[in-house]
Each structure stands twice: as C-alpha cells, then as structure tokens.
Amino acid sequence: MVRSPGPRGGPTVRTRILTALLALTALALGFAGATAYLLTHEQVDDRIDADLTESADELRTLAASGVDPVTGDPFSSAEEVVVTAIQLDVPARHEGVIGLRTGQRPLVSQQAVEVHLQDDAEFVAAVTPLLHSDQVVLRTIRTATTDYRALVAPVSALPEASGTVPASSEPAALVLAYDRVAEHAETQAVFRSYALVALAALVVTGVVGWLLAGRLLRPIRMLARTAQQIGESDLSARIPESGNDDLTHLTQAFNGMLDRLEGSFESQRRLLDDVGHELRTPLTIVRGHLELMDTADPADARETRDLALDELDRMNRLVDDLVTLATVGQPDFVRPAPVELGRLTDDVLDKARPLGERTWLVDSRTDARTMADAQRLTQAWLQLAANAVKFSEPGSVIAIGSRTNHDGSRVRLWVRDEGVGIAPDDVSRIFDRFARGEHDGARRDGSGLGLAIVSAIAEGHGGEVTVASTPGQGSTFTVVIPVLPVPDAGPDANPVAGPVAGPDRPVAPTARTVASPRTAPTPDLPPAPRAVPPAGRTPRPRPDAAPEEGPTP
C-alpha cells in the first residue's frame, strides 16, 4: 500500500482519495437536498398564500353580488355574507374555516373539515381582534397546537360590500387557515426518504470508490514495490505498461528513469573496472623498475626515468580518453552549431597530414551544411585517421571523404586506408572499450578507447559508425549522421561558398587537397551498411574497401 511520506506514515493514498471522494459526494448530496428542500418549502407556502388569496377574492365577488346564490334573497347583514361563504367554501386538505361575530361563538362549516379552528382557543383569541380591521389580513399565527397560515377577511373591509350590506349590521369576518406543519410534513417525509437514499448512495459510492481507487493506484503500488526491489546490484526490474492514461505515462517515465540509472550505474561500474584494469599494468611496470633501479648507475636511472615518464604519459592519455567517455550522455557532450562539411573535410585533411608519411587523398567532398559539433566530428575523424596510420605502411594511401545521400537527409564522413584490415572475428568488438585487434599475432599499442570515442560522438549526433574491411586490403570507417536544417543567419551573415545542399560532386585538385588518382576507387554510399557496434553481431565485410551508392538506412 502506498503511504504518504512522513516519519510515522499516515493514511494511505487510497484512504485519502476515498475520504475526499466521500466528502465531496456527501457535500454535493447535502447541498442538492438542502436546496431542493428550501425551494419546496417556499413553494408550499406560496401555494397556501395563493389559495387563501383566491378565497378572499371569492368573498369579494360574493359580497359584490349582494344576493345569496342559494336562496336568491339579498344579504341583510354581514353575518349572512360570512355564512354563505362558509357554506360555499370547500376546505382543502389541512385547511379550516370559521366565521367570527362580535361576542358570539365562531360560525363553523357543516362540511367535513380536517382542521377545526374553533377548537383552538388560542387561535380564536389571536384572530378575534382582527374582526374590526379595515383590511383583509394574511399572517402566520403560532399556537401551542400548531402553526397556522391564516386569512381574516372582515366583510366591512370589503369595498364591494358597501351598498349591498347594511352599514348598521353587526361586523362579521371570514377566517380561513392552513395547518403549515401538516402541509410541510409531506415535504419533510419526502426529504427523509431522500436522505436515506442519499446515505445508501454514499455507501455504494464508498464501496465502488474503494475498489476503483485500488485499481487505479495499482501501478503506483507496483512502482513502490519495484523501487523497494531495486538494489545496487540489480536494476533490471521494470513496471508493466498498459493503457494510455496519466498513470501509464508515469510508469513509462519511471521505467525510463530506471533505464537511465541502470545505464549510468553500468557505465560507472565499467569505468571503475576499466580504470582498475588498465592503470594497474603501467603502475606495476613503474613500480617494478623503480624497485630494481640501481641508483648508483646513471644510465640505469636515466632509462628508468624515461620508462616511467613514458608510462605516465600513457596513463595521462588513458585518463583523458576515460574523461571523454565519462561525459557521453551529458547535455553538453555535443554542442551543435552551423558546420560547412566541405570546409571541415579540408581542415581535417590538413590536420591529419602530420600523423604519418602517407599519400593523403580526398575521395569526395560535399558542400552541404548541417547543425553539428565541428570539434567532436574533427576529433572522431582524426581518431579514425590515426588508426589508419597505425595499421598501414608508409607511403600507402589514406583517403578521407564526405558525401550526402540521394535525398540529402544524411551525410557520411569516412576514412579509407590500404592497411592490414580487420579480422572478421574482431569486427564485432572493435568499438568496445579497451578492445584491441591482433595483427600478425601481436597487439598494436594504444589504449583501446579511440574507436569507442568515435562511436560515442556518432551516437551523440544521432548517427552511427559503420565499417567495411578486408584483411590484407584495408578498411573503410564511416561516420553517418543526419543533416539538420541550419537556421537562417540573416542578411548580415557571411556567405557560404557553394550551395547549401545539393548532390555531391568530385573535388577538383586544389592547393589544400590532393586529388585521388584515376585508378583509385571513390567510395559511394552503401545500400545497407552495418551499424557498429551492436553486441553479438558480425558485419559482412565487403570485398572492396569502398562503399557503393545506395540509400542511407
């Protein structure tokens, strides 16, 4: 169960979600019920007032007619008007009717009346003073028995009665009243039923919400269990991904984080293993020679000093290469900027010439521009050139080149040599750290990190490294990277020589480059180059050292 952070834990997320859900549901049901109750309560009071007002209008009409509709005789007194009104009135449910006279008992209806107003002495005492009122009175009267909504209509207060009822007659008044408590009791019964239904709905919501919250929080519980299972030596646990909701995105983000952590820890362990393995040998050599050095022999001391300095230089280069590989994956490992690939090709050739006495050529030169890190590409290119020098004979051809594919979406930067080539068994591992190929039964000098750095630079640009090699004939290493659009620098930018993008063309001999002889093959783009280094796979060496034209994968 996922618990909230804190030294003592606390309610589970599932409980908090359910509590919030039930609180909101109860608040919504309560607010809806209370609002409906108040509106219904007000509607009942409005209906009572409308009914009483209608009865008052009927009394006015009766008084204005001046004739008893039952006997056809004219009214001779106010009391006759009240008696006739009582006889004609049909009391509604929870309604009562009486007639008031001065100093006499109230007049009562002979019909079936549910509310007997004359039996409530407190009510009669409250309405009697209104007998002499000069207007029709509508008010609420509360007694020990119940609450009434009463209408008191004195006949003398009706303008319609003047001229039809003798002014000398004794005053009389019609009294109609509703039992408000009884009227509202029905509404209250309905809302008591509503409260029970709402309570049942709240219980059902709680049960369903508990099950639903558990189902929705299952990935989080799995995330917590997975996080607890992850140890320093095992980062392989992952959470199954299903669906396309927020929790699935959280799961994907968590799995991605685990992938990065696993890669980081693996890189860290590999770096420590590599450092421990590779630095142990030169340290042992230095220590052994220092222990055996004859301090009294100047020649022996000088030789030991030279050997120690040479080993320290090698360790310094090794540390520099390891630092470079340690920065792989960091945001600033590759810093893209506009690069003119043709000019970069010329610059790399100029920098590569001092690496060895070789016949340096340019196979092809593209005029495309792209967003890339020129320094990193130069580093990778020169590393490939240095390897070509190491595994070739003086005077042999080493050629570099650059070319885009047919649609200009990718560019290939290669180094071709006529060296010893690579054994098929070594091709699949030459880009691993500290991997060194054997030639003629011996290993060449080097840290074994150069090609790993080249591969890291290519991957940092979103590309890859391919190799085609034939033992005894030479090798061609190719860095393939995407061509990214260069933002418009504006009218003040320096003009770029040549087209921004277009088909590649052979480079004419210039003062800076040496053109390939007519017999030298010019590498084209291979139709299906093999990416290096995927572990456990062996590429197919091509019979020639140069790739052929074809689509870029």
From TrEMBL:
Superkingdom of the source species: Bacteria
E.C. number: 2.7.13.3
InterPro entries: HAMP_dom (IPR003660), HATPase_C_sf (IPR036890), HATPase_dom (IPR003594), His_kinase_dom (IPR005467), HisK_dim/P_dom (IPR003661), HisK_dim/P_sf (IPR036097), Sig_transdc_His_kin-like_C (IPR004358), TCS_sensor_his_kinase (IPR050428)
SUPFAM superfamilies per record: ATPase domain of HSP90 chaperone/DNA topoisomerase II/histidine kinase (SSF55874), HAMP domain-like (SSF158472), Homodimeric domain of signal transducing histidine kinase (SSF47384)
Bilayer-crossing regions: 194-213
GO cellular component, one term: plasma membrane
PANTHER family according to UniProt: SENSOR HISTIDINE KINASE TRCS, SENSOR HISTIDINE KINASE YKOH
Protein name: histidine kinase
Originating species: Krasilnikoviella flava
